Automatic annotation (TrEMBL):
<dbReference type="GO" id="GO:0004787">
    <property type="term" value="F:thiamine diphosphate phosphatase activity"/>
</dbReference>
<keyword id="KW-0378">Hydrolase</keyword>
<dbReference type="InterPro" id="IPR015797">
    <property type="entry name" value="NUDIX_hydrolase-like_dom_sf"/>
</dbReference>
<dbReference type="GO" id="GO:0017110">
    <property type="term" value="F:nucleoside diphosphate phosphatase activity"/>
</dbReference>
<comment type="subunit">
    <text>Monomer.</text>
</comment>
<comment type="similarity">
    <text>Belongs to the Nudix hydrolase family. NudJ subfamily.</text>
</comment>
<dbReference type="Pfam" id="PF00293">
    <property type="entry name" value="NUDIX"/>
</dbReference>
<dbReference type="InterPro" id="IPR000086">
    <property type="entry name" value="NUDIX_hydrolase_dom"/>
</dbReference>
<dbReference type="GO" id="GO:0017111">
    <property type="term" value="F:ribonucleoside triphosphate phosphatase activity"/>
</dbReference>
<protein>
    <recommendedName>
        <fullName>Phosphatase NudJ</fullName>
        <ecNumber>3.6.1.-</ecNumber>
    </recommendedName>
</protein>
<feature type="domain" description="Nudix hydrolase">
    <location>
        <begin position="4"/>
        <end position="134"/>
    </location>
</feature>
<dbReference type="InterPro" id="IPR033713">
    <property type="entry name" value="NudJ"/>
</dbReference>
<keyword id="KW-0460">Magnesium</keyword>
Length: 147
């Protein structure tokens, strides 16, 4: 079997000092994560992050910048991930939408709440992405080319 990393996307959304996260069921208990998921075949990264955010939070996501690309090897399942994290805003909340399987709820948390609950984050990437966002890191959407 050929090794290959898993390509994932994540939405970094901040509104009035609070960050949009999802509480989800994992094999290690309930954890918090950014709205995130896997890139699907015949889908651009932008399309993937918009879709995943809607499926996990019932909010429409508008990507505005690329926060960064994160390479991470999961210590519990030995899987390598390449995470494309996008900064953006949400609107058009649709509470009637059913959330993805395993998603308990969307929740808004301050950075202090996130830091004090670091052990409940799905991975270290959650806080790393938020800290990078708070430091002002961002790149234009045009740095990723879709052919």
């Amino acid at each position: 079997m050929q090794w290959k990393p898993h390509a994932t996307v994540a939405a970094i959304v901040e509104d009035n000092g609070k960050f949009l996260l999802v509480e989800e069921e994992t094999d290690r208990g309930n954890r918090f994560n950014q709205p995130a998921g896997h890139l699907e075949d015949n889908e651009s990264l932008i399309e993937a992050v918009i879709r995943e955010t809607l499926e996990e939070t019932a909010y429409a996501f508008k990507p505005e910048a690329l926060l960064g690309i994160y390479h991470w090897k999961h210590e519990h399942n030995d899987t390598t991930y390449l995470r494309f994290a996008y900064i953006g805003s949400v609107s058009d909340y649709q509470p009637e939408l059913a959330l993805d399987e395993g998603i308990i709820r969307a929740v808004w948390m301050t950075i202090d709440e996130i830091r004090s609950n670091a052990n409940l984050m799905r991975s270290a990437q959650v806080i790393t992405c938020i800290e990078d966002y708070l430091s002002g890191q961002k790149f234009p959407l045009s740095v990723v080319t879709h052919l």
